[in-house]
Fold this protein.
Amino acid sequence: MRGSSERIERVLSVIPYDRWVGAAEISAETGLSSHKVSGIIRRHLRIAYVEGKHTKILGRGSKLYRRLRLIGEERKQ
């Protein structure tokens, strides 16, 4: 279980507040597969910590993500 929470924290830490990123970009920074990244976001982070939007890239459906700012959370410089 500990490894799972470390992966969740690692994924969350690389999702930016100020721009949209795909699972492939998150994957490149975390060392996890894009499929694993998408699953972690879908099961553990969406709604509370991360928002997603659908987009079309090269005719394929894809999802982009960005981190939500929580109430009371200070703006990072």
Q: What stands out?
A: The first helix runs from residue 2 to 14. Strands lie at 21-22, 50-57, 60-67. Residues 2-67 form a domain with the Arc Repressor Mutant, subunit A fold (CATH 1.10.10).
